[in-house]
What does this fold into?
Amino acid sequence: MKNILILGAGTSGTMMANHLVKELDKNDWSITVVDQYQTHYYQPGFLFLPFDIYTTKQVKKKGKKFIPKGVNYIQEKIELILPKENKVKLASGTEINYDILIVATGTKTAPDEIEGMNGSGWYKNIFDFYTYEGAKALRNKLREWEGGKLVVHITEMPIKCPVAPLEFAFLADSYFKHKGMRDKVEITYVTPLDGAFTKPKATEALHYLLEKKNIKEVTNFNIERVDPENNKIIDYADVEVEYDLLVTVPTNMGDALIERSGLGDDLNYIPTHKATLQSKEHENIFAIGDATNLPASKAGSVAHFEAEILTDNILRYIKGEPLKEEFDGHSNCFIETGDGKALLIDFNYTHEPVEGSFPLPGIGPLKLLKENRINHMGKMAFRWVYWNMLLKGRQIPFVSATMSEKGKHYEEVK
It folds into this structure.
């Protein structure tokens, strides 16, 4: 019997297990998933945890619950991938053979990459919200914080969910207004980009919202170090930004396993064919989600679209058929703007965020690049969709893996 081995039981790995178990002949193929963690986190919920919008119970569940029957599940740390031998070595020394390997090990924050970031101020007045621990600690801090200079900062790109830092700034504005202390908080958004977002079309709308909400913007800030003693972040041009409370997005890096195995780039992401999701170096290795080096957003919607296309390509690979070069970098993302409203953006490798309606052309009910309440409701509903449909590999009605141009106004990326 041949074996498909999936490394990681996060969003991507769990989806792939659910997709493949429905498609493969159990007499010919076994599926094995390896992951060291017991808990599966709804990572988009980390954004809402600091503002007491979600509770801790709403953003985590037991991971094994979502692994389908018929799939071997091993809960153990992975030590090494041995691609020349088609083996993976676990921390216990056990070796697992594979015929096809799917790497879904995600990305992690690395605050130690920046001098002073996780020093004396870490989880005192310097926080991240890209981890469960960080978001929870920040929630406790915000409950008692009396105001001052709040700096929302991105270290470098790429990061998971590139709009999340903006969403945090918008939600902070709303949070402090509702607490009756917005006048006591100065919010500054600090980014290494030359604008609010990676896509110019969306940057226009988002910059307008920053101005409207009186959130200062510092662009082209390439951080060199954090000075926790004097509450400053300093970039390579010696520009300084002072803070009383720093909410930072540290460097995001692929799993250290990828570095140990010699399979990654400088940030431990796997060089991946951007349309097929096949490794550029090993034909029987595929990568998905945040583990790849694709020029697409590292977001749950992207992983969802990739999973549908990768499933088809795995089946083609098994049959010896040419892989479909079908993944177009499709990303569909809600952007919380505070006060019960949100934007929705839809884009891919070749198209800037489009205007129009989603998912049905001319009908919606969601409006693209428009700030409104129904988009916020869509964002809130996504948590149910995530736990009950997306993770289980169920088709989301009317939402295609590749980006539809029907009923949309768009500009191509130059």
About this structure: Residues 109-251 form a domain with the FAD/NAD(P)-binding domain fold (CATH 3.50.50.60). The chain is about 25% helix and 25% strand. The CA atoms of residues 217 and 361 lie 35 Å apart. The chain has three domains: 2-106+255-319, 109-251, 331-409.
